[in-house]
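Q: What does the predicted 3D structure of Peptide chain release factor 3 look like?
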Amino acid sequence: MAEAELMKEIERRRTFAIISHPDAGKTTLTEKLLLYGGAIHMAGSVKARKAARHAVSDWMEIEKQRGISVTSSVMQFQYQGYCINILDTPGHQDFSEDTYRTLVAADSAVMLLDGAKGVEAQTIKLFHVCRMRQIPIFTFINKMDRASKDPFSLMQELEDVLGIRSYPINWPIGTDGDFKGVYNRQLRQIELFYGDQSHGQAIVSSTRGTVDDPVFKELLGEPYYSRLVEEIELLDMAGDEFDLGKVLKGELTPVFFGSAMTNFGVGPFLEDFLKMAPPPGPRAFGEQIISPEDPNFTGFVFKIQANMNPNHRDRIAFMRICSGVFRRGMQVHHSGSEKPVRLAQPQQLMAQERESIEVAYPGDIIGLFDPGIFRISDTLSTTPGLTFTGIPSFPAEHFARVSAKDTMKRKQFLKGITQLAQEGAIQVYKQPDIGVEEFVVGAVGVLQFEVLEYRLKNEYSVDLKIQRLPHRHARWIVSSPAEPDQLNLTSSTMLVHDGRGNPVLLFENEWSVNWARDKNKGLELSDISP
Ligand code: G4P
């Protein structure tokens, strides 16, 4: 592969995730983006995924029927010379670590808000992960065809709740349920909204190049015209300057108003987004920084998904390519083992279809058949000795005591729990003095308990007894004035050990965390595992 060609492939790639609170319109927007890419036949499949979040059992059913994970699809399509990878983050009410890890594989994020609701709880959580990584965040404010919050107060909310400055690329006209369209600030044109039928394609340009063009006055009428002129003046005067450097550092978010359902604003958004969003950049593997144009192939595993189809008991490891060229059948070093690995059955995950691939480039995600050798963060590279360090472990917020209903199934129970812990689906703790027939399991989202129950039954034939615990915080003991079991703690605080034998305290609330610190001078706690 000529160097120039690799450069060209990198330059044209955009790998991003859409983050949003359920119901903001992520399924709808994804579908519209795919339609732009000419992947029309996929629209239905995206819609079908929506069923996923209604009930866990539905979701499992879908997984089974398709034989591929619907929660972790990667959709690739081409548009105007760009190669676009959309990473799907599950739309469940509950967060799992998967969602966060997926963001590590993305180079930028689209934050989708419902114009009537603004910044919602799950948007905040996901935003913070993007912030941690300092990736660019593009905001699409959706459902403008309906009454929405005032656009200035939406900008204020972005700043107050998320702490990010914003730059509106366009500005909505009529936000009381009387949506007329948007004013495109850069092109100085009004893009008119005609409702469902015309898909908002009509564009009226200013002949004068300013918002006070009489053409607009006639077109919009009052009070819309005067209000627009006023608001644009205010924005130009008091708003932030556009600064691509700040956008790329995640300090300023470009804001687009639109309506995914009617397709209004989706096309202009996609085009601006593609121009501004970065192609794959360098990634840190410990001390080493690897550039995408490095001819040596490097990728890391960010997600492992067991296949629910009983006919194919396989697992898929999702790998994000960071440098060089991936070729089917290539032999690589694997950070998790001493042995070389041949990447013989790579799969590209296009919506729900598996497609075998021959070649892939930085920014692409491929599914690798996993005979049980891969772990989260594993690095695959033609360069030996590399280990990806960019996937943080997220503190569990929900805990449960689990055991097998049938004590005769202890062996399978242990195997299943160990397997799921290795996949990163759950965190496993042991209570002192309790044998391997019972564990304390931690999860980032409560849905993970249901997945655990389902998978143990289906893959290991073990019926689980799950007893939810009231604890909400796990803290590792960094240094302690006494043996962990001698500490002065509230009666509800539980001492457990993580998979590596480190002592961990589980607390019901922040108050008991502080209590432990106050009553035990010199006790140092951390919410990150050592
Ligand atoms: P999600 O994946 O983020 O959870 O949201 P999804 O796209 O499923 O959209 C949630 C609801 O919001 C859907 O309505 C969808 O049609 C609607 N919606 C999405 N974009 C827009 C928009 O731009 N304007 C308006 N007015 N509505 C929008 P639903 O009634 O829950 O489902 P359905 O009847 O469309 O199946």
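A (community wiki): The structure tokens above were generated from the sequence. The chain has a mean pLDDT of 84. DSSP finds 14 helices and 31 strands in the chain.
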